[in-house]
Write a structure and sequence with these properties.
Chain lengths: 154, 154, 154, 154, 154, 154, 154, 154, 154, 154
């Protein structure tokens, strides 16, 4: 169990929020088990952007499920990447697909799905789902919903 | 991540409620990711119309799921379009299908489903579901129900 | 969006409860979207009849799902039709199937299901489900259960 | 809607509890809609028997789902039939299958399922499920669980 | 409805807890309906054993579902069989499979599944599922979860 | 019911926490029922590690489901193995796959799935699912969720 | 801890259901801790009587809370006392008060409350509460919580 | 923070189950904070005894709340004390008061309440509540809430 | 709104886990609103210690409510203080009171309550509640509600 | 019903996010019912700040309950006031009290309570409750119930 995390510069260091998503690196490290097909979920309930036309803030929860290829995303790097949207103007659809594309590009995963659950604006919430690649055998994302199982005990 | 939203006139401007649904434009903008198949849900829990014969107000929640083609609907425009029904006489079935048809016409989506959940009148709620097109691979609407997942933690 | 509701006589008028279900008209109007396959649900939680032998009142919730052909049922007419059972003696099974048959006859729907959930009598509740026709592609009734979705937010 | 219930002797009359299940008639009446395939559920949460060896009372909830052929069971008759078990010695499995068989014999239904949920004895509850015939197209029992749907409104 | 329960010695008699599971008879009686395929569930939330190495008590809930062949298990006998584990050393996996095997041997059922939900030891609960035979048509175990249905009424 | 647990050294003895996962033995014992296909679930809600770069503690719930071959894992040994991660630096993905691999190596199970539900860091929880082998007939893991069934009684 | 239970004749013996409540003894035994004020709750969810006028069965859950004086009620005796109502005609109010009075007479408790939660007849459930004596300091009945309360088990 | 636990003989040692409750020591250790009034809850959902007349097992959950004086009960000692009831004949009321009295005697607490929630026998669960002493200011037991409470786990 | 946080050394710096609770500083900063009585809750669901006699790990959730005087506790400092218990031997009661005492000493709050909800050991969870000072008018802690409460997130 | 809202400058105008909380006006308007004591709740689930030392974002839900005196807060003004914290460094306690103080100053309410439910940092969520004034008779804030409460919509 020795993960090679050479090249990681953000974890454990004082982290500045990147100036924009385009300037935010998505640091990855070597998948220590490239021969095993498995599924990773990252959930980000603290995501916020601003509207590109009005400058008003938007809020969302992002749920990412992926089956890694040779790389894994480092979670602090992912957090800083998400923080870089804080003062960045973007529409919900574009933003969700962009997060998907950046992860796809950085990770070259076997499969990835990004779900953006955006808070209501004008009384209308918007949810966006982007999914590419195909699930290998023996890989399935957890259900979207509560799943804290504690062993047959309520 | 640069969405081309030239031509959008309503977002960020002071918005008048259109005089009727027929007069309400549904502004769209260019889908920045036309080569990606993904799903967008808009939910409108604040929708209201009037009965064409009695003038009494009706209330509904609309849930729209679509897989975009070349265009996306701008959400403030969609809100104003919905607001235009406020003093407009319409039956539940017609209205729900009309919303579906206007979106289909404006967006030419690969797939679209519109669900109208109408509050009870005379003690009888009415729900209408309209669905056209076919789902591309790797595209599926979220379930109709609660889904605020927060990462395996209750 | 112009529904032809010529011929509707009950909506907006002062409504008398019909003397019996047989005498109660089920007014319909022209489906403004006959080329679209969609689903309509009517739910009636305030339905009451009397037992044909004992004269005791019975209570039920009715749930109707149908895919319209050329006609839609007008909901006030449907309500008055249901009200006509108030002092009408009928058994649960017969009544539920009768409601189904009257709707089928009046609407010639592509598909229809009527569910009657009857309150307990003698400690024994009775539920009746009648379903005819077949579901067109892209048409499915909502689940029997809670479904007030409000956009990915709990 | 005229059900032929000639021959019904128990409904509306003062009812004596039959001396034993074998002596308890299961009165039926003519299915007014023999050409329609539909499902009827009867639920009996107030069912009680006695143990054939110890004479101690047992309690159960029975859930019956059937698709009628030419006959329907009259519910007061069914209640009295169930009441006849009150002082009758029987094991849980036998009793549940017997109720199933008597209904099958009296009704010749296209399909029937009887579920007996028996209260704990010696700390061990027993549940018995008997199911025969096959479901016609467009017929499905309601789920075993809560289902009081009220039209998209909680 | 006359079950042949000749040979039952434990029901209605003063019952001693057997000295060990091996010495505990599993009394059965003739299935009065051998030609009907049906499902029986026994649930035992009061099950306890001791650890074979440390002598410390363990606790579990057992859920048994089976489709009987020619024999049914008598429930008091089953309770006493379970009670015989009270001071008997056994591991969770072995015990759950043993209960399954003893029932299989005594009953020769068409299908049987035994689920053991064991309380945490060292903070780690263990659940064991053993399932053999195949389900006949029209036979399905109840779901593992709450199912007290009371007729569409909460 | 005689499990051969010769070779077990940890159960019932005073247990030291192993110095590292690599040094932690996973003691197994002979599956007393190698000819029966069955499923075992171990749930560990008290799992903790440290970050390899920052030294800060991490917390997770692990859920393991496996179909044993010739060996079973001894649960105290499994607990001590998990305890050995207490001061061990590891990333979430590596750790979850490592637990899977160690169990696979020690048990040679017919099927195994390990789920790691990790608490949020930087507001982002991570869940990892690793699954290998194929399920034999008549073997299925319990659902990830609550399942304390108590016999049809709420 | 040596309870004097001399005089108990029903516990452990084969018990016949008494012919009527009046003929049903309520056996008690000596309170081993007469100097301690404490509260005892007995819950009977399997209680049934018949209507004195129609002969039809009634069902209820009884909840008894008492602070013992010199005597405790033996629970099998209490069960048989309740079983004696099985074929006994009584109204809900009368029955609940009678159970209270018999317990008061047999136990001379410092405080007693009997709650009868009766199933609906004609769609109307009836609940009866009888309470006499006064609570000593440091004694309080558990909350009634769910009225289908089953004794500390969810 | 240095607790004086001299005199503790059971914790960390191989523990034999005591032969009877009377022979089971309740080891205590010095309250390191005798000048602070605080509340301690111990919950024991795995408690079992046998009936003194029939020899049949009984099960209960015990909930103990106390405000310590100069002594605290050592929890392994308390567990072994409870385990000593495993083959010990006792009635529910006596047993619950006895546990209370032993704790009171061993601890001389400022306040103590013992709640015994006993599983149904003959369909009738029994709950016993014993409470002595008075609560100091700023001390209140946690609510009983879910009675199958498992220590901060849902 | 200018908080004086001079003297804070841990927040924003790379933090080492202190070698023991006694060596762990609890950094505080000046309460910017000393004239307002208000309540602060800190919830720590990731708390772990080791048993002083056996060396085995223990887990708890801590819930702290206090009304500040002149000082507030800095939350990273509080986290590191809690982390310092990770390899520290302590009993549940002592530990919970010690956390209370350290906070009282560092903060001199007007009121403070510390609740420790400890995971089961030997099947017995322990909960400790320590409360000192008195609540000023207009100050009341939030309800404990779900004890796995995670700070306003479900 | 004529509300005097002279002086409102933000509602209906294009709104810029104020440069800091200190520079953000809290616009109010005349309470049209100053002689009625009533309660107003504003819930803000989309609140975010940054840490004054690390620059990292924080998230909270704010719940404000007040009984108005002569003034009411205009809700768009309140939203812009909250938005002004977006890039503003502040600690949780200071920020929550500051929001309370600004509202108290602007409104001079008879009573006000501000609750800040802050997302976990370092695994530790913080909740702050500030309450001043006294509740008039017949005024009580709604229960906090679900703290992610969304305004009467489930
Ligand atoms: Ca795989
Ligand atoms: Ca909104
Ligand atoms: Ca796709
Ligand atoms: Ca209505
Ligand atoms: Ca269609
Ligand atoms: Ca049909
Ligand atoms: Ca029982
Ligand atoms: Ca069958
Ligand atoms: Ca444990
Ligand atoms: Ca198998
Ligand atoms: Ca007392
Ligand atoms: Ca009734
Ligand atoms: Ca105190
Ligand atoms: Ca105050
Ligand atoms: Ca008032
Ligand atoms: Ca966190």
């Amino acid at each position: 169990m020795t993960t090679n995390y050479s090249g990681l510069t953000q974890l454990g260091a004082k982290a500045e929020i990147p100036s924009s998503p385009e300037n935010a690196p998505l640091e990855t490290f070597s998948n220590p088990h490239p021969n095993v097909d498995y599924t990773v979920r990252l959930t980000a309930p603290e995501f916020t952007t601003v509207c590109p036309l009005t400058g008003q803030p938007d809020f969302a929860t992002l749920v990412v499920d992926y089956v890694p290829g040779d790389r894994l995303v480092e979670s602090k790097s992912f957090k800083l990447f998400l923080n870089s949207f804080r003062n960045h103007g973007t529409f919900h659809e574009d933003c969700t697909v962009y997060v998907h594309n950046r992860l796809r590009e950085a990770l070259a995963p076997k499969y990835i799905r990004v779900v953006g659950l955006w808070f209501a604006r004008g009384g209308i919430p918007i949810d966006v789902v982007v999914e590419t690649g195909s699930l290998p055998p023996n890989c399935s994302p957890l259900p979207l919903g509560k799943s804290t199982y504690r062993g047959g005990r309520e």
